[in-house]
Each structure stands twice: as C-alpha cells, then as structure tokens.
Design brief:
The chain has 11 helices and 25 strands. With 449 residues, the protein is an alpha/beta fold. It folds into 3 domains: 182 residues, FAD/NAD(P)-binding domain, CATH 3.50.50; 112 residues, FAD/NAD(P)-binding domain (3-Layer(bba) Sandwich); 122 residues, FAD/NAD-linked reductase, C-terminal dimerisation domain (Enolase-like, domain 1), CATH 3.30.390. A 5-stranded parallel beta sheet has the order 3-2-1-7-18. Strands 9-16-10-11-12 form a 5-stranded parallel beta sheet, covered by helices on one side. A 5-stranded antiparallel beta sheet has the order 21-22-25-24-23, with helices on both faces. Helix 1 runs parallel beside helix 7. 43% of the residues are buried. Its cofactor is FAD.
C-alpha cells in the first residue's frame, strides 16, 4: 500500500505515524513545504510572553523521528499539482528547483489552513505579523522584547492571547475587532464583559465594532492602522482574524464547502475513492447542529488524522463528530467552552435558552475558594444540551470536557442534572457546579412553562 500524505502539521503527522503503526508494511511519503512538522502554534503567544521552557518542545515529532519510523519525508517539497483521480503527485524541491512525479495507491490531504488576509490597502506592509507557522513565530519573537506599542487585529483566541501576553510584558496594546466584544464566538456577554474589564485593567485599548480599512507607514517608523472609526499607531501590527482551508490545489476535484473546506464522510473519505482528507483542510461534523461546518482546531485535526489511519484499508471506525471544545487562560482567568453559546445558536436559527449560574467551586468552610461562572445553552423544545462555558480564577476548564460528552451523547438538561458527579470538599460542592447549572436550567424550563 503506497500512500502520499500532503502536509504535516497535526492531521498529517498523526495520519502518517498512525498508519505506520497499524500497517508497518505501508510505503508512506510525506510532502511538506516547510522545514518542520507538528508545530504547536497554539503556543506562539506563550512564547512571546516568555512562558516556554524550550521552543523545540513545541514540536512532538521531527522529520528525523518520522524517518526513524520508516516514513519517507520529503521536506521543503511543495506539491504543485495533484491529480487525485489518477493518484499522481507533482512536487517541487524548494532547495534545488527540481520537479518530481510519483503515483500512489492512496492520497491523504492534510494541507491545513492559511491565515485570512483581507485585500485592503497596505496589507503587504513588512510591519504586519501573522500568527500561524513556525516561521511566523520566529519572526514575531525576534521583535517581541523590543517593541513598545502593538496593534492586534482580531479578538478571537489568537488575538486575545497575543494581546494579553504583550500587555503583561509592558507593551501598549490596542485590540481591534469588528464584533462588539472579545471572544464572541466562544463566550456569551456575561463572561466576555468580565474579560473585557480585565483587558482594560491591563491598559489594553479595546477598539471594538471597528473594521480595518488600511495600513501605512507611520512618521516615527512604525505602522498606522486605520479603521472605519479612527486610526492607531504602533511599532508592529499582528493579524489574527481567522483561517481559510488551504485547498486551492484540489478545487474542482473533490466536493467542498464554498469556503474550500473538503467534505468527507464519517470515515474521512472524500468524494473520490482512495482519497482522504483531515484537519484544517476539511469540514467537521458539528454535533450541536448535526451539520457539517468548518472549525479549524488542533484537536479536530488530531482525531481526524487518527481516523484516516484506522480507515485507510476499510471502514473500521466512524467519526463521532466534534463539539469544538476549547479553553484559554487570560489574566488569571481559566475559561473553557464547548458547543454553542446563545448568540451563535441564534445566528444558526436555533431557539435556545441560556442558563447562567455562579457559585464558589467548593464549600465556604474551606480556607479558600473562588467563584465559578457557568453558562449552559439548551434547546427550548427538546431540552437537549447544545453548549456550555465556564470562567473562574480556579482551573475549572475540564468541565467543558464533561459537557462535551453530554452534547455528543445528545443528553438533555434533565440527564445532565442527574449525572453522577462526586463530592469531596477539597474539590467541589455537594452538587458540582456543572450539575448545579443543569439543575437551574431544569428550574428555568419549569418556570417558563
């Protein structure tokens, strides 16, 4: 079995290594245009803030380690043509300029995503920094200690983390976003209001509900960022407004969403036989809506890469979908979310209720405790749990994993309220805050009837 894997961040790395484990006889070739594999880009902000012990530990595999496993690694090889019907790959060696052609029995597309870069004046300014690849990470790290003013564009996870790390290391930060609040796709206003207060307490200027209209050099050698409401000057600008599937090479060959995300079935097969896809290049089956969606997350990519390996020789394990569970730590707040918040649900036409609950995470007779703010989103008619989020100064982030399982198993608020959660005063109240929030949701439902 001769297999080509195109791209090797998370989905590609896991596809290749897991196939080799399950099928030692497989002849696997990985094409990667960069010099590294398996880069944990979620650590870039931490590296900027000097919280990384060793940047080389931001990789869990290397080209050498994958070669030792018996995988042929064609590093710094850019695939310039992929004939998916005939399973032929043409690659350019970026060091020599030479081209090579090879045919395979199966092709795995794991080309990942690319930063969303809007077509606005000045976008090619060399003082604009991306936050995606190892090369991006090195470029921004080189200047991080020296800059004094930073404009961050995009208040999702990436932008929020970068803005926080620059602010706690003494930089003057402006955070710009077109939405009316930070992290709008992950958390409801009851949570983001507190987070915004934390940004402002750390002297971050929040320029919300503003759209960037242009970039230009500033008179002091920095960069001037213009929006539809004003202008902001800084030493550098960091662009983190989202990602698009990196799938231009395959357009017209396999079924895709309008944004280019490749559609797969539950076994990670595309619309062509013996062509698989995984990771940020593909869709996910989003359990809260029971529909395919585009949600680029490392966790999704890793699981899909594993599924490619399980199903490379037949249908052995079906994809169970995702809840897009995630977490972040900002200004000492541990925050996690799974599924839909109220705004995201309503934007998809769903009739939902959001229950908000707050209590200390463990009994008050303990010498210390601290509040947990919880939200639970549920379907008004079916009472099915669709999402949850948590915020606390205590690390309660694993609670999102609990509700993720509830969503995956289509539990109702009644099911979650009666779930078996332990009580031990070192760790929790007699009724765990997850169960307490679900009980409040049940009460809310009764009061609304």
């Amino acid at each position: 079995m001769k297999i080509a894997v195109i791209g090797s961040t998370h989905a590609g790395t896991f596809s290749a290594t897991q196939i080799k484990q399950l099928h030692p006889e497989a002849d696997i070739t990985v094409y990667e245009q960069h010099t590294t594999v398996s880069f944990l880009s979620c650590g870039i902000a931490l590296w900027v803030g000097n919280h990384v012990s060793d940047e080389q530990r931001m990789f869990y595999e290397t080209p050498a380690s994958m070669t030792e496993q018996g995988i042929t690694m064609k590093m710094q090889h850019q695939v310039v043509e992929a004939d998916l019907v005939n399973k032929r790959v043409r690659a350019k060696n970026l060091l020599t300029g030479d081209f090579s052609d090879e045919t395979f029995d199966k092709i795995v597309i794991t080309t990942g995503s690319k930063p969303l870069v809007p077509k606005i004046p000045g976008i090619d300014n060399d003082k604009i920094y991306m936050v995606k690849s190892w090369e991006d990470a090195n470029r921004i790290k080189e200047v991080a200690d020296d800059v004094k003013r930073v404009v961050v564009i995009g208040a999702g996870y990436i932008g929020a983390e970068i803005a926080e790390q620059f602010s706690v290391t003494g930089k003057k930060v402006t955070l710009i976003d077109g939405f009316d609040r930070v992290l709008p796709k992950n958390f409801s206003p009851v949570i983001t209001d507190r987070l915004e207060a934390a940004f402002q307490d750390n002297d971050v200027t929040l320029a919300l509900q503003q759209l960037v209209t242009g970039f230009e050099d500033a008179t002091d050698g920095g960069i001037r960022v213009t929006t539809n409401q004003g202008a902001y000057e800084a030493d550098i600008a960091v662009l983190g407004i989202g990602f698009l599937p990196n799938t231009d090479l395959f357009k017209g060959q396999v079924d895709m969403l309008p944004n280019g995300a490749i559609l797969t079935n539950a076994y990670m097969e595309t619309s062509l036989p013996d062509v698989y896809a995984a990771g940020d290049a593909t869709t996910v089956f989003y359990n809260p809506t029971q529909a395919y969606d585009y949600i680029p997350l490392a966790t999704n990519a890793i699981r899909q890469g594993m599924l490619v390996a399980r199903n490379i020789d037949g249908h052995h394990l079906a994809y169970s979908g995702t809840q897009a569970t995630s977490a972040v730590e900002l200004y000492g707040y541990a925050m996690s979310a799974t599924g839909l918040n109220k705004g995201a649900a309503e934007a998809r036409g769903l009739d939902v209720v959001e229950t908000v609950h707050e209590e200390d995470y463990r009994p008050d007779f303990m010498l210390s405790t601290t509040p947990v703010l919880s939200t639970l989103t549920w379907d008004r008619k079916t009472r099915r749990v669709l999402g949850a989020a948590f915020m606390s100064k205590h690390d309660i982030t694993q609670a999102a994993n609990v509700v993720s399982l509830a969503i995956q198993n289509q539990m109702t608020i009644d099911d979650l309220a009666m779930a078996d959660f332990f009580f031990q005063p070192n760790f929790t109240q007699p009724v765990n805050f997850v169960g307490a929030t679900a009980l409040q949701a049940v009460s809310d439902a009764q009061n609304k009837n």
